[in-house]
Amino acid sequence: MTDSAPPLASGPLGMRLLAFDRVPEDTRFDDGVPVGYSLVALWRAGLLLLVHVRGRDCWELPGGGLDPDETPRQAAARELAEESGQHVAPRRLRFAGFALTSLPGRGVLRGAVYRAETDAAEPFAPTAEISGVHWWDGAGPLPHGRLQTVDARLAELVGR
User: Fold this and answer.
1) Full-prediction pTM beyond 0.90?
2) Angle ∠(63,66,71) on CA atoms, nearest 5
3) Contact at 8 Å (CB) between 76 and 63?
4) Which domains are assigned to the chain?
5) CA 131 to CA 92: how far, in whole Å?
6) Could you please report the per-residue DSSP string of 79-148?
7) 60 touches 50 (CB < 8 A)
8) Cross-strand partners of 50
């Protein structure tokens, strides 16, 4: 992507979605941009799971950084459970592609994006990081805070 190309989406906190690559999960990139995080678009009865991140006052897809010696798939399952209380085995996550994002103060990173479906919502207990979860219809208002529009665009790209 060139600097003059418009992003696929821009977020309220300065995040930009530069590209979304539908390539195999085991793709090795030689552009120097690391795979630094994983996200999960979890669907239940046509609704998308979002988590409210306290420090950003923002509704986002569950996800986060990779721990040492952890695969993006393992990180996705772990982050989903830690942030939302929803448990999906890593093997049940369907790889959707890699997001190329620009983050203020962090430069350009690549994120592995997964999707999954569940039949039932598991209980959620607020944490120091996550104040709530919401099953969103993609159009209606959120209980409070703002929407991370980059994550909403990624959810559209990976589909239900």
Assistant:
1) yes
2) 105
3) yes
4) 9-158 (3.90.79.10)
5) 26
6) HHHHHHS----GGGPEEEEEEEEEETTTEEEEEEEEEEE-SSPPP----SSEEEEEEE-SSSPPSSSEE-
7) yes
8) 134
Sequence length of the chain is 160
Backbone angles phi, psi at 90, to 5 degrees: -50, -35
User: Which helix (H) or strand (E) is 21 found in, with range?
Assistant: strand 16-21
pLDDT tens for each residue of 72-130? 999 999 999 999 999 999 999 999 999 999 988 889 999 999 999 999 999 999 999 99
DSSP state letters, 40-60: EEEEETTEEEEEEEGGGTEEE
Beta bridge partners of 115: 41, 94
